[in-house]
Amino acid sequence: MEEVVIVGAGIAGLATAVALKKVGVRALVLERSKELRTTGAALGLFANAWVALDALGVSDKLAALYAPMERRGPCSLDALGVLGAS
């Protein structure tokens, strides 16, 4: 039997489940989507979020896969070549 039910398997729901597991609390994560989706999303994290991910023991795994993006001024999807690309 689970002690906690988490609705939503996004970054917050999954991080909460990992944190609860680390302290011995069983959690059930419910997600409406039937499969993982890898399109149409980006995740921007402030430094405090990386501290939290480090505390959960997953920051090193993420840092090895994804390079940090530095923003140096205003930017648009068109400027990045995302819009209007064919």
TrEMBL record:
Keyword Acyltransferase annotated: no
Signal sequence interval, chain numbering: none
Entry-linked Gene3D superfamilies: FAD/NAD(P)-binding domain
Molecular-function GO term, any one: monooxygenase activity
Domain FAD-binding: 3-70
Family matches, as Pfam families: FAD_binding_3
Domain of life of the source: Eukaryota
Keywords recorded for this protein, A-Z: Monooxygenase, Oxidoreductase
UniProt similarity note: Belongs to the 3-hydroxybenzoate 6-hydroxylase family.
PANTHER family: FAD/NAD(P)-BINDING OXIDOREDUCTASE FAMILY PROTEIN (PTHR45934), OS04G0423100 PROTEIN (PTHR45934:SF1)
Protein name from the UniProt record: FAD-binding domain-containing protein
